[in-house]
């Protein structure tokens, strides 16, 4: 079974295998501390945004991936809120203390989802209604921070004005809504549109996080992390022209 089937942009047939990315990853493997974009020895600084009603696995899947990678590669990761430091209650009752978010201190912001089906409860709709998180995400993205949207966290990115006209994915129950907001929604597990990377429902966040490890730090970082967490990536990564180095 192919472990990494990387689909090229619409200029290439959807079934074509991208050998370019695999070759680039192999080059990075020779120097685990190296990275895309001339990062050098500077760590990949990852902030995972949390809020009341967020899905546990949307948060802890990517958090585990980046935390495990940090044992052997230049990565830092922390849980943050869209505003002041606070204790956050997740969808299934998990309570977690999250730090205040300083967007200029992050290279990558992970935005999980949760509560899409609860218009009047905690979750993505409540965060959109407050307006603070979408505003902060818009400003961070404008400043050059890469954003990884997971599951219905992509709906928050839509409210932040980041998905209109962009190729992306989300949980299958939210795709029609996202398309109505102007996104080019595709049926893929992970979509890499350059500074906007999106993953489908819940567990897809693990695949998205592993892909970004490979893209930013090379295949050695991703392979190491996969082996430790005993996770085999599935599905495809659709890379658009915006994602081409």
Task: Please provide a written account of the structure.
- This protein has 245 residues and is α/β, with parallel strands linked by helices.
- The chain has 8 helices and 12 strands.
- The strands form 3 sheets. Strands 1-12-10-11-7-6-2-3 form an 8-stranded mixed β-sheet, with helices on both faces. It has a two-stranded antiparallel ribbon with strand order 4-5. A two-stranded parallel sheet has the order 8-9.
- It is globular, with a radius of gyration of 17 Å.
- Residues 1-38 have low confidence and may be disordered.
Task: Name the features.
alpha/beta, 12 strands, disordered N terminus, 8-stranded mixed β-sheet, 245 residues
Question: Concise description?
Answer:
The protein contains eight helices and twelve strands.
């Amino acid at each position: 079974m192919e472990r990494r089937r990387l689909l090229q942009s619409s200029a290439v047939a959807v079934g074509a295998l991208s050998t370019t990315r695999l070759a680039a990853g192999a080059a990075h493997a020779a120097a685990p501390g190296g990275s895309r974009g001339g990062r050098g020895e500077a760590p990949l600084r990852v902030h995972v945004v949390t809020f009341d009603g967020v899905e546990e696995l949307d948060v802890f899947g990517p958090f585990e991936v980046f935390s495990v990678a940090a044992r052997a590669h230049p990565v830092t990761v922390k849980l943050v809120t869209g505003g002041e430091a606070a204790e956050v209650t997740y969808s299934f009752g998990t309570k977690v203390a999250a730090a205040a978010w300083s967007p200029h201190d992050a290279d990558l912001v992970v935005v999980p989802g949760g509560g899409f089906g609860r218009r009047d409860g905690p979750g993505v709709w409540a965060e959109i209604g407050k307006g603070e998180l979408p505003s902060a995400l818009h400003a961070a993205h404008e400043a050059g921070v890469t954003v990884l949207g997971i599951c219905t966290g992509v709906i928050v990115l839509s409210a932040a004005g980041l998905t209109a006209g962009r190729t992306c994915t989300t949980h299958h129950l939210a795709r029609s809504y996202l398309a109505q907001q102007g996104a080019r929604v595709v049926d893929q597990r992970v979509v890499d549109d350059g500074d906007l990377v999106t993953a489908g429902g819940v567990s897809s966040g693990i695949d998205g996080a592993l892909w970004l490890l490979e893209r930013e730090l090379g295949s050695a970082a991703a392979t190491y992390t996969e082996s430790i967490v005993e996770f085999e990536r599935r599905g495809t990564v659709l890379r658009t022209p915006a994602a081409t180095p």
